[in-house]
Amino acid sequence: MFAHIRLALLATVVAAAIPSTPAIAYSFKTLNNQTPIVIGHRGASGYRPEHTLESYALAIEQGADFIEPDLVSTKDGVLIARHEVNITGTTDVSTHPEFKDRYTTKTIDGVTESGWFADDFTLAEIKTLRAVERLPFRDGSFNGLYQIPTLQEVIDLAKQKGKETGRTIGIYPETKHPTYHDSVGLSLEEPLIATLEANGWNSADAPVFIQSFEVGNLKELSQKTNVRLVQLTDAADISLDGTVIYNQPYDFVVSGNSLTYGDLLSNTGLAEIATYADGIGPWKRSLVSIAGVDSNNDGVADDVNGDGLVNDADKTLVAPSNLVDLAHTLGLLVHPYTFRNEDRYLAADYQGNPLLEYKQFFKLGVDGLFTDFPDTAIAARNNLAAVPEPSTILGSLAFGILAKRFSRKRQQPK
C-alpha cells in the first residue's frame, strides 16, 4: 500500500513539475524570444496513420501548436492531405479491386515509381479509401479505419479544436511536388490560396505557414499571398565525418540551376531566401550532424550497436553549425524537421532518450520543430521553460522520470 502511495505522490510531483503551460519564464533564444512552436508532423504520426483527422486531433490533444498537412491534388483539383502523389504505401488502395486498372508507372521529380497516384482519382473515389501506417515498425492496429481528409477538413478541425481548447491551432501546409502538379495541369498554389481566403486565413497574422522544397513556387506565392512562407531544404546523405551532402530543389534541376540546398543555407543563400520567405525548414542534421565509425575502413559507417542496421543510433553528434544564428541575423525563423522517438532516429549520445535531443535543439534557439511525437516535444519544452538552469529539484525529478521511462523502453527486447 505504501508503494502505491509513494507512486501517487510521485505522479503528483511530476504533474506539478511539468505544467501544461510553462510556469516560469524562460529566455528562449528564438528570433522573437517567444516560446518555440511544436508542429505535429503529419499530425501525431508516431501514434496514428499519418495525415488523418484522427492523427491531427491527437497532435492537438497532445499540445501541438500547428498541424502539418502535406498537400497533393486529386484528379478533380481538390487538395487532400497525403505525403506523396503515390498513395500506395499510405492507403489501402491496393485492396480495392475496382481500382486495379489504375495501377501505373509515373516519373515524379525525376524518380520513376509504380503504384496508384492521387491525381488519377476523384475526391469521391479517394473518400472510399482508408489510411494505413506507412512504417512497418509502428503500430498498424489503426489501419483501414480513417479517411483521407481534404485541406478544408483539416482547417475545420483546427478551428473546431481551437474553440474547444481555447488555443489558436495553426496549420502548416506543404505544397508537394509543385513542378509535377504543374506538369499535369493541377497547380497547387491557386486552390491553396483560394481555400485560405475562404477561411479568412490569407494574411500575415493568420495561423498559417506554407512550406515547400521548391523555390519557384514559394517566390510565386510571395507575390500572391501575405501568409508566412518557409523554404524547406533537404540533403541526400551524410558523410562519415558528419559533412552533410546536399541535393537540389527539383525546380533547379529542371531549370539547370546548379545551386544546392547547401548553397541556399549559406549566408548569401539565406539573404536571398529572406527576400521571399519568412523562415527556413532545414533537415535537423543541417543544425546538428552526426559522424559514423569505420573500423574496417570500407568507407561505410559500422553497425556499432550490432542490431543489424546502420542508422543514427550507431553515430555520434558533431558540433552544432551556426545556421540558427545566421538565419536569425537575417530575420528568418528556423523550423527543423523531423524529430522522432525511435532509437533509429536518435544519435548514440542521447542513449535512447528523445527528450535530450529536443532540449539540445531548443537551447540552440530554434523557433519551432516538426515532430511525429508532439507529446514528447511538449514535455521537453515545458521542462526547459519551467526549470531555468540550474534545474530545480522538482524539474530534475520530473525530467529524470521521463528519461527513465524512455530508458526502460529502450532496454525492452524488440
UniProtKB/TrEMBL annotation:
It catalyses: a sn-glycero-3-phosphodiester + H2O = an alcohol + sn-glycerol 3-phosphate + H(+). GO terms for molecular function: glycerophosphodiester phosphodiesterase activity. Residues 1-25 form the signal peptide. Residues 36-381 form the GP-PDE domain. PROSITE patterns: GP_PDE (PS51704). It comes from the Bacteria. Its EC number is 3.1.4.46. GO terms for cellular component: periplasmic space. The keyword Lipid metabolism does not apply. Keywords: Glycerol metabolism, Hydrolase, Signal. CDD domains: GDPD_ScGlpQ1_like (cd08602). PANTHER family: GLYCEROPHOSPHODIESTER PHOSPHODIESTERASE GDPD5-RELATED, GLYCEROPHOSPHORYL DIESTER PHOSPHODIESTERASE. This is glycerophosphodiester phosphodiesterase.
